[in-house]
Design brief:
Blueprint (H helix, E strand, L loop, with lengths): L7 H8 L22 H8 L2 E3 L10 E3 L3 H7 L4 E3 L7 E3 L3 H8 L4 E3 L6 E3 L3 H5 L6 E2 L9 E2 L3 H8 L4 E3 L10 E3 L3 H7 L1 H53 L11 E3 L8 E3 L8 H56 L14 H10 L5 E2 L3 E2 L6 E7 L12 E7 L5
Helix pairs in contact: 8-9
């Protein structure tokens, strides 16, 4: 051949034709006539070239043989984001983009630790149950969204609540911060409501006691009826053949002579019908006994409910009494005069363990001095329990402590 040089791509194109020929001398070609020119390859690979990313800032220039290696390391090489955001970034900025800039990068919510796409983080905050929100009533901030309902029902000072004596008739509704003032202002009214509730409870207990007595009477009567019926059946069985013997008055006995249960005789009456009548009576009696037992159980449940209510009302009454004492007595000269009313009842409660101790109203050593109160055990405490009255002084936190 003419010895002309061709690049590999051109030679492959020529050889792929039906009649390959040299483009210079038009001589017919075949694959055996073409060989690799090592000299030309060395000359070509030694040529100086620039990086193909020169237009976007790469300043690299070197031999062609080093070009491919440089392109693998070139920081200006463009790459498509692997998070699927669609952006093409340089290789040098790829990691920073994936970690800090990509809209599809996964970030952990700082409140609930859930992984969320960065672009959707603001939307997530609008739904995150741990995201801090502000109470619209008291303007308290930094309350987790899933705790807001609890905050309002149990903590928020501006949430409107009912008086704790509403079930007894107090109609007061106020912001929670006003609850203490309401309790102090209407203490006497609350005591009156409790007294009315106690009176109603006592009347209800009396009615229940009457019902229990009536049920006991019915139960005794039914028991006597069952005993009588059972005795009649036993007498009939013991009489044997005498059963069914006609009487002069047109009746025949269910059992032997003189059996207490009888029935009329006639063509349509079967012998032994008295036994059936007695069984029916026993069945009806058993049914009534069952009804009485159910009624007794119902009354017992009501008595238990009233007992629980009584315990709650006793605690509320004691608390209100203490509030009255605190309002009526306030000493700022270091002297405490403590009047304990209804001492007999209070001592019984101490002996029973229901209210082992009582607190006095607070008093002060001076108008701006220490705040303290007294605590008394009417049945004693520690070594003096059951033998003495024990008194202790309790230091309290004052307004300026």
């Amino acid at each position: 051949g003419c010895g002309e040089r061709l690049c590999r791509a051109c030679s492959e194109t020529l050889l792929a034709q039906p009649d390959p020929r040299c483009p210079i001398c038009s001589e017919s070609l075949n694959r055996k006539m073409i060989f690799r020119d090592m000299f030309a390859e060395r000359e070509t690979l030694s040529l100086d070239v620039n990086c193909e990313n020169r237009e976007i800032g790469c300043t690299w220039r070197g031999c062609l043989k080093d070009w491919e290696d440089h392109m693998h390391r070139c920081g200006f090489q463009q790459m498509k984001c692997s998070n699927g955001c669609g952006k093409v970034v340089s290789k040098a900025n790829f990691e920073r983009h994936a970690a800090e800039e990509c809209a599809n990068r996964r970030q952990m919510c700082q409140y609930c630790s859930t992984l969320v796409p960065a672009a959707a983080m603001e939307t997530h905050y609008g739904q995150c149950q741990k995201y801090p929100v502000q109470c619209t009533l008291c303007n308290s901030a930094s309350i987790a969204r899933d705790q807001m309902e609890y905050h309002r029902r149990e903590v928020c000072p501006e949430y409107v609540v009912k008086c704790q004596f509403s079930e007894h008739g107090c109609s007061g509704e106020f912001a929670r911060r006003e609850q203490q003032r309401h309790m102090d202002q209407y203490t006497q009214h609350h005591i009156s409501l409790l007294e009315q509730a106690v009176n109603k409870r006592d009347k209800r207990v009396q009615n229940l006691e009457k019902i229990v007595d009536d049920l006991a009477t019915q139960f005794t009567q039914l028991k006597n009826t069952v005993t009588t019926a059972t005795a009649g059946v036993a007498a009939g069985v013991a009489a044997g053949p005498a059963a069914g013997k006609p009487r002069d008055d047109g009746y025949q006995y269910a059992g032997g002579a003189g059996a207490p249960h009888s029935f009329p005789t006639g063509p349509n009456t079967r012998q032994g019908g008295g036994d059936s009548e007695t069984r029916d009576l026993a069945t009806r009696t058993a049914s009534k006994v069952h009804d009485v037992n159910l009624a007794v159980d119902k009354v017992a449940m009501e008595v238990k409910t009233i007992s629980r209510t009584q315990a709650v009302q006793d605690v509320q009454m004691a608390d209100l009494s203490l509030r009255v004492d605190i309002v009526d007595v306030k000493s700022t000269n270091g002297v405490l005069v403590w009047k304990i009313g209804d001492i007999s009842r209070r001592r019984r409660e101490a002996l029973s363990g229901r209210t082992p101790s009582l607190y006095s109203a607070p008093f002060y050593t001076s108008p701006a001095g220490y705040k303290m109160c007294a605590r008394i055990y009417l049945d004693g405490d520690g070594m003096g329990k059951g033998a003495c009255v024990s008194v202790f002084f309790v230091m309290m936190r004052g307004e300026y402590d």
